Structure formats: C-alpha cells, structure tokens
Amino acid sequence: MRVLLTSRLYPSSVYPARGTFVHNHARFLNERCNVQVLAPLPYFPRLPGFGRWSALSRVGQIEERDGLSIRYPRYFSPPRRLLFDRAWRAYLRILNGSERSFSPDLIHAHLAYPDGRAAVEYGAHLGLPVVISVHGHDVREIPDANHRWRALVAEALTRADAVVASSRDVRERVLGLGVDELSVSARSIALVKARVRELNFVACQQLAQQALMLPGAHEVRAFVGEHC
After folding, report:
1. Are 107 and 121 in contact (CB under 8 A)?
2. What digits encode the pLDDT tens for the residues 145-163?
3. Number of separate domains in the chain
4. Least buried of 33, 121, 167, 198, by fewest C-beta within 10 Å?
C-alpha cells in the first residue's frame, strides 16, 4: 500500500525535536507500506534576524531521516496567522504537485488544519480515503480563536474517512466538532500498534483492500473484528 503522509509538524535539521511522534508514525508505517512524507513549511526568504521564520528558511528541500526521504516544499502562509483561513488552499497546491511523483492509495494528515483540510480536498479529487490524526492545539486553540477557523477544522474532520485522537480530551473535542465516530479510540492506540506488528504484510494488504470497499465505519469495525 502506498501512503502519502503529510504534516507541517515534522522534525527537520533545524528543529529535530519538532513533531517526533509524527516521524515515529511514518517510520513505523514505512516498515509495512511504501510511504512518502511531505512536510510543507511556510515560505520565508533567507533573511537573518526574524527568529523562527529565519530558521525555517534554512531547512532543505529534501532531507533524510531514519531511511525516509522527507520533502519540505514551501507554501504561502504569512506570520501571525494573517490570511490563515486561506492557508489550506496554498497547502493544497503542494499536494496537487506531489501527484506527478507519487500515486498514493491512502492519505494520512497529521493536524486538522491546514493539513487535514487540504488533505480531504485532495483526497476527494483523487477518490482516495483520508485519515486525519489530531494532537491537541488543532482542535482546541484554532477552533476557539476564530469562528471561521472552527468551521474549517470541523469541515476537515467531518469529511475525513477516519479520525485518530491522541488523547481522551482530544477525542471529546473532536466529537464536539461534529465527528460522531472515531476510527481508533485514544486508549486503544498502543494495543492496535502491538497487534499490527504481529500481522503479515501481504495479508494486511489484502484485508485493507477489502476494507476500503466497505460502505462505512460500522462495517469496517465489524470486518476488522472478524478478521483481526
């Protein structure tokens, strides 16, 4: 299975401790799937004296980490969240550009906005399933700051084929944004990872293809319960 994993919350040579949990997820998936990682960054010219923004400009276009090749394309997103409600459109152009070099079977976005919002639009264009993992500030700080941002976050989550919450609190936040079913509850993530490690790769591919043909989350859960 070919997975496009996309997130602006990803470690780099400049910020190696940023989003290490996203990288660990990509590294784990790469043992069982063909994973391409896109980590879009806001564009900023190579000018000194602007703190974090100047630092981001020093990240390479492509970097290697634990056997993964990570691409860091730039998109337009001004400082201080100016025009933030349009950021997902600029992010979407990055995803559209990736289609020429990689044809995924599934899209997995970390963070609901702008990553997830762009991912569901891209997935709809290609007819592909989209999973969004949410981690906290994307369903707490962003929706609470602006009603338009809240609507964009809610649209991303409700259009996704599956949503993974990082904690019980995050799960409740997601439910409050209109998502009535989550693919994986926070308490079961570790158990799911342990079970996946026991599975055969070829068998997983066959089961995944069958699951993708099912009409909804209820049927997928029943299928997984029967075969896994």
Report:
1. no
2. 999 999 999 999 999 999 9
3. 2
4. 198
Same domain, 123 and 220: no
Q: Are 113 and 151 in contact (CB under 8 A)?
A: no
**Which ranges of the chain would DSSP assign to H, the alpha helix?**
20-30, 52-56, 87-98, 117-126, 141-145, 147-159, 168-176, 189-197, 201-212, 217-227
Q: Which residues contact 109 (CB under 8 A, 6 or more apart)?
A: 5, 6, 7, 115, 116, 118, 119, 130, 131, 132, 133
Is residue 193 domain-resident?
no
User: Mean pLDDT of successive 10-residue segments in the chain (228 residues)?
Assistant: 95 94 94 94 89 90 95 92 94 90 92 98 95 94 96 96 88 88 56 66 81 82 75
State the residue for tokens 């964009």: 152
Are residues 89 and 52 part of one domain? yes
Domain that holds residue 212: 198-228
Amino acid at 71: R
Report in angstroms the alpha-carbon separations of 188 from 17, 141, 143.
25, 25, 26
Q: Are residues 157 and 218 in the same domain?
A: no
Give the end-to-end CA distance of the chain in Å, rounded to a whole number. 18
Alpha carbons 157 and 149: distance in angstroms, whole number: 13
Residues 37 and 117 in one domain: yes
- Would the pTM count as exceeding 0.85? no
Q: Are both 72 and 178 inside the same structural domain? A: yes
